[in-house]
Amino acid sequence: DIQRELDLFGGRFYSRTTRDFTIFSVVVRKEYINDILSIFADAVINPVITDSLICAGKKSILSDIERRKGDISNILIKEFFKHAYTKHPYRLSPAGSEKGIRNITDHILKNYYKSLYVPENMTLVVAGDIKRKVVEEKCRELFGTFKGSPVLNFSWSQEPEQNSAKDIVIKSCRASGDAAVVSVGWHSPGIRNKDTFTMDIILQILGIGISSRLNNQLTEKMADVYWTWGNYITSREPGCFVLYAACSPEIAEKVKRTMLKEVRVLRNDSITPKELEKARMYYVAGEAYNLENILDCAYSLAFWSINKDFYFAETYLNNIKKVNAEDVQRVANKYLSADSYISVILYPENPEEKVR
User: Are strands 22-27 and 12-17 parallel, antiparallel or unpaired?
Assistant: First the structure.
């Protein structure tokens, strides 16, 4: 397989699947770049899809799905998206379902590959200490004759506007550990929306790091809150802004109320100049750090190419620096309203239930 060939050149292979795209990456010494490009080209243009490989792939994915059944954080995210989206395919896990994986056949897989893994729907990124013209010539040599079928135009239902809060409580969650996990989230703008920059600032202030408002109000002030976090999923289409916490089951509802309270305070009172400057510097430092890692550089280029918006990437930090307190309050009131949140609380199994 491809990993076996890459091993000959000391290549490290990575893959990642999101709700919008799949990325395959290799990190290798620059003197082997032509060899790696040849391996990639052969794998893409002449894929070997046999029953034995399909069987092995399905076995690996099913094993991963089974393993994740004991991961309460994974269960929480899966449940959150299931309830946040009722129509849009974002409600489905990128990992797939057991039933879906088991039902994949040779015919289904080959048709899927032929319809999506085509030049019109692919991006090739090479980043590092390379000679650009030499690499471009090699890419044209390897991929120049690759035609493929026209990419299919998929359509799907758009998510209807949510006009009321959703409170989901799942008791006796069959996952390892004794903590409850709480999530509170809202539908949020897609990656091309200008409010994205302000949402990033809000995320950092509310849920990222030890100085975040959630950490200060929950982890620092409540003995039985173990961690807090936040995530703004910048998807191609409208995604979700979600706050998380893990805590003792006895205080899960209190934790949820505190999370909602902190969002309400943000809507009403906005932020301090110190918080705003700290949030801006968080992203400036993050971008600088990412540029030091060649894999992150390649991923970033691929991400923006897929989203067809390099201008967004080039102006990201400038736009982050332009966000002000009024923007924060406006965007918080626009998206993080009191009557449109989705809350999911997972409680662990009771000891008595485990015995039964």
Answer: antiparallel
